[in-house]
Amino acid sequence: MTATSPVSAFTSARLRRFEADAATDPDTALAGLVADLRAAGGPLVERVSPEEVDVTFVHVADAGSVALRTTLLRLPSHEEHAPLRRIEGTDVWHLTVRAASDTAVAYSFLHDPPPVFASPAEALAVYSDERRAGEHLLARETATTADPHNPIRAPRELVIGDEEVFDSVLVLPDSPYVHLAADGPTPALDEHELDGRRISVYQPDGTAPGDALPLVVVLDGEVGIRGGVHRRLDAAIAAGELPPLRAVFWHNRTLTSRMGELSCNPALADALADELIPFLAERYGVPGDASRRVIAGFSLGGLATAHIALTRPDAFGAALPMSGALWYTPAPGDEPSGWLIRQYEREPTRPTAVYLTVGQLEDVPVDYPGVAAGTTWVGSTRQFRDTLRDKGYDLRGYREVPSGHELVNLHLAVVDGLAALLR
């Protein structure tokens, strides 16, 4: 079953009171509303049942239009933001969304945002073109502002311009998400280059390069580093939630090169197995047992992770696909979606342990060219889970994370997944 829109057309009681007060004393009314937003730490949250809340996003801005960008909206794949409603005669904009009370998501406001894509095909075409993708992302960054009343922020996963861009993070009352303080420790990284590609290596304090720690290779390395995945791992190791491990962040060559490299490309699997692991073995203690070598990735990187687990089990005996694009088809129009799942059905079972995750909010139809109507990230992941079980794989866990297709999801998934795979 796919999601219906969680957006509500009603105006919250607090904003109705503001609207009435603003008619007679606008300055006092605005000061009182801003004080309430500051006290709430951003959006106004009202519980409507034991498991659901109404979240009212409020932003004050003198702009022609204001939009909200967050996976909480469950928008179609090509629509990246939705308009807020302006209270007439004021600079107050708002939108109310119903959500599960255990959710955590990033969000931001956009002043006079660029238009949304007309279709999934247009979005795919733009994000496949280096120049057009850069222009679109820069335009979106320029329009973006974090919530000034919410102290919880996270860096935007990709930044094109010179200015730092932050999203705010909404953590609802029953969420398991624990935010890493911005002023917390940032572990050192060893930086290397392999065939013109950047590679960043994390290992915990107190360990030496020669220690044969479990190896975790993380795809989309530049996103992982910007998003603080190494900080999440470091905190989990310090808390005893993970054993000491060495994490290697494999960076993409360009903004759009990941589209070809991570789409079930055997060249990537071979490069990791035949080039990266020997390169690391010359400089670090790499475990000889493949079960202590984990490949991990999110989104298109999650698809690549599952492909590598199938094609190079000699190199990686454990895999952590997070919100993988398992609906992928290599030949839209000729090859049905879910291509990799069918390869798992056809091929002999590999001696590979898998921990599988997807976001609960990823239940919106994908709608990319060649993908069967109604296909969702959640549905594809459940199908892959069932295939792994039917084939007798060592499925260490399956989790639907209370978040969307974003870095908050990854932060909620990565520690539990690695703990299960390295137990």
Would you write up a description of this structure?
- One of its GO terms (molecular function) is enterochelin esterase activity.
- Its main location: cytoplasm.
- Belongs to the Fes family.
- Pfam families: Enterochelin_N (PF11806), Esterase (PF00756).
- Residues 55-177 form the Enterochelin esterase N-terminal domain.
- With 423 residues, the protein is an alpha+beta fold.
- The chain folds into 2 domains: 7-171, Sandwich (Immunoglobulin-like), CATH 2.60.40.10; 190-421, Alpha/Beta hydrolase fold, catalytic domain (Rossmann fold, 3-Layer(aba) Sandwich).
- It is built from 12 helices and 19 strands.
- The protein has helices spanning 13-22, 26-40, 120-127, 130-143, 221-226, 229-238, 258-261, 266-281, 300-311, 339-346, 377-391, 407-421, and strands at residues 7-8, 44-49, 52-60, 66-70, 82-83, 85-86, 92-100, 104-111, 144-145, 153-155, 166-171, 190-194, 197-202, 215-218, 246-250, 293-298, 318-322, 353-359, 394-401.
- The strands form 3 sheets. An 8-stranded mixed sheet has the order 12-13-15-14-16-17-18-19, with helices on both faces.
- Helix 9 (300-311) links the parallel strand 16 (293-298) and strand 17.
- Helix 1 (13-22) runs antiparallel to helix 2 (26-40) and helix 6 packs across helix 12 (407-421).
- The longest helix has 16 residues, at 266-281.
- How much helicity do the residues have? 25-40%
CA(first)-CA(last) distance:
34 Å
Instruction: Give the strand line-up of the largest sheet.
Output: 12-13-15-14-16-17-18-19
Here the CATH topology of the largest domain equals Rossmann fold
Query: Beta fraction of the residues?
Result: 15-25%
Total E-strand runs? 19
Oligomer: single chain
Largest β-sheet summary: 8 strands, mixed
